[in-house]
Recover the amino acids of this structure.
């Protein structure tokens, strides 16, 4: 197993200024796995759904070489459901409904066939659940990436800090980096967070791009692609994480230079994600579309300066 | 004359979470000219001050090869004065005092020796004053850059639109681009604004960097340098504009590729500006410091991706 992805597989009902999605498949694990599937050959997911979850979506995962032996299906129970409404600026949203359902007492079980995974992506979930996955792996993966959110900083900070000591990369947004560190400057925040355990920190700034910091105070910045329309931001951060870890798992190269490339591939997958409701755009991309999108990122930021004084 | 800079030369009194500046020299024209002086050989300023303006600052301008024949000194009058207080996030501020003084009836006079300028930078001022400068030039400069702000969109939109038809590059921030175009998406906003006259649009996003758009729908993005501390953001946009136009005036190359380089040099000057109160940091930089800062920008964004499929 090259990559193990842990994260929610669920239903969303999303309202944006452009329309309403009705009940569609979402969840961090779904976005991560779909985005990563464009890069990895062997990918397995650990999650839980109810018996209301559509078989077609599981079939689609199989088509994308996403193994679902670790996807528990709870008979007579319902899948996690979230409904939300985005404001006009698309940067803020109101949660209308959160029904935990099967996620309330989710006990992740890593199948034997996943246990030797080389890369582990822990999508946003209770820190205790994330920890239980790490504990089931007999050997430490080459790289463990953890995503989390402000909610867990509010109600489970100690558990979060414990799991931070076990991971290589943390991905959070700018406000969360400020909350976790108590520092407004993202440079200072990164320094403090890296002292908490992870050797690398990715700060996701949404439409303003992403920053990658390492313990040697190196920093890399990738912009978000300026788009005509952001149709639905749901899952953008997870798609980013999926492209990032998928590219690393594919190349098996965890040098800082290769992590920079992974950030660009992650940004490309996030830029696709927001162009349609839910996972629609991530379901049917061609290799050529991915390459063309990455080329747009290259064109967006590359410049040529010679610093020889004249 | 290589570059003509028009803009306020004034006093500021700035309060940030880090302290209080008391009354110091500021003004868009001052920041632009100082930042540009690191690149251009021949640079002249058109502005107005009262007899309260310190001779030492004018001497400093001369040391930096900034000609002041176009700087009117009004006897018995006072220089423009602005006082403001930044909030903790440094992204928003309250204006405490605005005393227009000599700026209230400023009638710009371009000296004969400036009239053949190759590059013209119109700093933020009444659009009618910006227009009067353009009208005094017998030949159109190679490139005219205009900076403005939401205030003029509110009270002098027609005059602003008239002057927009006369310029090559407009520099505004993201909120102003949205206000001027009526579009939330910056890509759509850029398209509409470029239809208003300027062939190029620079959208300044403060700590989130800057975007350069052209009429062929090409786009370039430069980040802001992630800094440990932003000490005083006053003048950052003007320092950006000064570095940008100064580099273009020095290289005399207005290709899109060279404008990308100019954006990076502008971003470098802005990053220096915010490290101290007012113009302090821009007064004494070495060529080596500028080069090292630009190298930091290169390191921040450059990556190497081969898109050959394997």
């Amino acid at each position: 197993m090259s990559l193990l992805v842990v994260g929610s597989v669920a239903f969303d009902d999303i309202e944006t200024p452009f329309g309403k999605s009705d009940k569609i498949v979402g969840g961090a694990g779904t976005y991560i796995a779909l985005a990563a599937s464009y890069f990895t050959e062997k990918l397995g997911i650990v999650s839980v759904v109810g018996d209301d979850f559509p078989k077609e979506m599981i079939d689609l995962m199989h088509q994308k070489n996403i193994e679902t032996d670790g996807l528990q299906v709870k008979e007579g129970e319902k899948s996690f459901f979230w409904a939300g409404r985005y404001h006009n600026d698309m940067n803020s949203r109101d949660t209308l409904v959160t029904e935990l359902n099967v996620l309330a007492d989710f006990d992740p079980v890593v199948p034997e066939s996943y246990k030797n995974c080389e890369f582990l992506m822990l999508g946003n979930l209770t820190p205790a659940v994330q920890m239980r996955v790490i504990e089931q792996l007999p050997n430490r993966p080459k790289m463990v990436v953890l995503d989390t959110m402000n909610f867990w900083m509010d109600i489970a900070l100690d558990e979060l800090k414990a799991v931070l000591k076990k991971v290589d990369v943390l991905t959070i947004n700018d406000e969360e980096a400020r909350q976790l560190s108590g520092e407004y400057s993202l440079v200072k925040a990164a320094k403090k967070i890296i002292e908490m355990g992870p050797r690398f920190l990715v700060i996701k700034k949404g439409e303003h791009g992403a920053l990658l910091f390492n313990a040697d105070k190196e920093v890399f910045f990738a912009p978000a692609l300026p788009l005509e329309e952001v149709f639905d931001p749901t899952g953008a951060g997870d798609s980013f994480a999926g492209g990032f870890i998928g590219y690393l798992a594919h190349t098996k190269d965890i040098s800082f230079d290769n992590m920079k490339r992974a950030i660009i591939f992650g940004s490309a997958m996030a830029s696709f994600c927001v162009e349609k409701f839910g996972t629609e755009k991530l379901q049917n991309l061609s290799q050529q579309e991915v390459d063309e999108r990455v080329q747009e990122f290259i064109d967006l930021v590359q410049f040529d300066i010679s610093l020889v004084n004249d």
